[in-house]
Design a protein that fits this description.
This protein has 392 residues and is an alpha/beta fold. It folds into two domains: 249 residues, Type I PLP-dependent aspartate aminotransferase-like (Major domain) (Aspartate Aminotransferase, domain 2), CATH 3.40.640; 133 residues, Alpha-Beta Complex (Aspartate Aminotransferase, domain 1). The protein contains 16 helices and twelve strands. The strands form two sheets. It has a seven-stranded mixed beta sheet with strand order 1-7-6-5-4-2-3, with helices on both faces. α1 runs antiparallel to α11. The longest helix has 20 residues.
Amino acid sequence: MTNKWRPATTLVHGGTLRSQYGEMSEAIYLTQGFAYDSSEAAEARFKGETDGYIYARYGSPTNDMFEKRMCALEGAEEARATASGMAAVSAALLCQLKAGDHIVAARALFGSCRWVVETLAPRYGIECTLIDGRDLANWEKAIQKNTKVFFLESPTNPTLEIVDIAGVAKLANQIGAKVVVDNVFATPLFQKPLELGAHIVVYSATKHIDGQGRSLAGVILSDKEWVDEHLQDYYRHTGPAMSPFTAWTLIKGLETLPIRVKAQTDNASKIADFLAEHKHVAKVIYPGRKDHPQADIIARQMSGGSTLVCFELKGGKEAAFKLQNALEVVTISNNLGDTRSLITHPATTTHKNLTDEARAELGISPGTVRFSAGIEDGEDLLEDFARALAAI
């Protein structure tokens, strides 16, 4: 494989491993164990003296193909596939932290991510400080002598705030801390956190990477030294491994990722522009629009907009529910990055466990709605929203 391939080519051919049969579609090695030619061969494999697979919880040929293809796309040296996005987040954080360490995290996080840093980590003696991640000064003020990890999403869920990844990475490098970026909303096509200075990138591969509502999956990417020193043993012994069948599904999903994300982004842009002019809409936040509050940072670190649109309806929860219930093409679902257009009301779904005060801090009001654009005809989506808004 050449490293000169462009993303669309890499996502079709990267990491391909063929058996002696020369199959075109990647093989699914649906096995939990592997055989050895001799006792001596097994001993050498377990000692690490020879290459090869030992147990599917540690790795398999199918998982290896997915991980290598993701590395080629992301510009990472190593990757580990996980059973879900939250397995990736939890492993990426906990594998490198111990009691007495400190996390600085942007407060604008997916609800389960906030639970990990705000509730789970302190149970094990790991301190956490949540900040408004939009201001670099807040990251600097939150640093303590025991700060080991900075954790952030950008764009954030659901309000599409932007964090200056390069700026955060510069601060982290000054104190020897690691930056973990959840890059789901940007997709690996529109933002490259490792190139911006981040150390670890995580994805819920359930979203755009599969992108067709089939699989739960996640992936962690970094350099080989960090994976070997921190992640490898945690991964092997705690068991967040991905199924080989899921890995195969994701490999096939990656082949069409650029086509799907382009169509989704085009549709999201059209819907954002339409909503911005509508009388029932108080506010639209979309990274592809010039009126985004952090358009200058977006121009520096993103090469495209987003498949997501966040908007606020003037009529609060009642208006949001009326809109969602009146839609015909768009489906009510808390997933995102799907070929189908999806919509959800964060205050009662993805962020329902936060207090009213915490939601207000994040800009999530009773009228806030998150739209995930699919690949349907854009005109059908526009007509669907026009009909639904008329129902309010």
